# Entry
Amino acid sequence: MPELPLTLYRAAWVLPACGDPIRDGAVLVGTDGLIAAVGPATAIEPPPGAVVDDLGMAALMPGLVNVHAHPELAMFRGALEDLNFRDWILRLVGAKRAALTEADFHAAARWTMVEALRSGITTLAATESSGASAAALCETGLRGVVFQEVFGPDPAQVEESMAGLREAVDCLRGWECDRVRIGVSPHAPYTVSDELFRAAGEYAVAEGLPMAVHASESRIEQLLVRDGEGDFAPGLRARGIATPPRGRSTIEMLDRLGVLRARPLLIHCVLLDDDDIRRVADSGSAVAHCPVANARLGHGVAPYVEMRAAQVRVGLGTDSVGSNNRLDLMEEARIASIVHRARLARSDLMPPADLLRLCTIDGAEALGMGGLIGTLEPGKAADLCAVSLAAPHARPVHDPLATVFHSARGCDVILTAVQGQVLYRDGKLATIDPEPLDAAMTDAAARLREAMT
# Structure
């Protein structure tokens, strides 16, 4: 990282996420990339030699934390529309195997980092089989966790699957640094046997690795776990894999297998009952809430309000652009508030201050980074996002929090910084050139279309 100048940022509004909005606020960032002071601009004099950066009619807030995405799948945007979940999975996996190369995954991961930076995302949790995001995060300056996926629905595959997982993690650890961590992800109940879940959980605990699991996402997953039936069962049985009932629910099954001992990030959690929520809370596990992808695939709405009432740590994720189409966490937060108000017929749920926390400190805590990022306060890393409030669709500004989450959009972001380093400013990217990636993404998309016809 280049040497950082001592910088005083000023903005019409500073939104700390740990206190009230500050009109005409300022944030002082030290040469170490840490926040030195936050407050009204009149109370923070520029120190000698400081650069003063006036952001104007903008809201300066903590960088956004996307707790679940699949960067390697960026070329699937718009390619898997209006499919039921089983067909969506099968078409994705089939096309991925038939048409895409490792170079494609690396291009897609970098393309995702471009989109993330342009929309104010400073921390991204990537769940993927290629591990391409490890290099992409390091090279672009973003912060994140890369959860290496492992698959194996046949109990006889456990040793082979675990050997492959250990090898992949060992390779990816070469990319670890103060901004990037490597974890593991036994994918989902329809692709992972009980034996592999148990082995992966033990490995994560023994090695101190963060873990993520797709869990309680869909009705057909629920039917497979509870009854050994549903749309996934015939395909498994055709491969000679038995499908007996495995538990009362996915969460109960993961608890019994010891997976919750690893305090995993449980992705989706749409179909939870009170007992499931209690198990998640008691284990200290976290949840990645992905409302847009869950709605688009017809899975339903996760019980976010009930999970938070039980003190479950919940962060916000976009999921892949193959299921969401966008990597816009501000939009994700807005839609989350709308669907939960509709679900519970209440107009007071998830006010804008809660949406700011959901996108920042709540996501940081779900990823175990709450002590480092997520709020604007002295001593924390200067992971910053500035949103312009100058466009007609954002004016007038009665409440800056409501304006950011219900009027502004990801494309209104004018500054993204990680650890004090400015990575995106006014349409320009500092650490990556998207132009060479454009041709690679276009070529990969063409091969995908051919494979899926």
Observations:
- The chain has a mean pLDDT of 97.
- The two ends are 45 Å apart (CA to CA).
- Residues 54 and 448 are 45 Å apart (CA to CA).
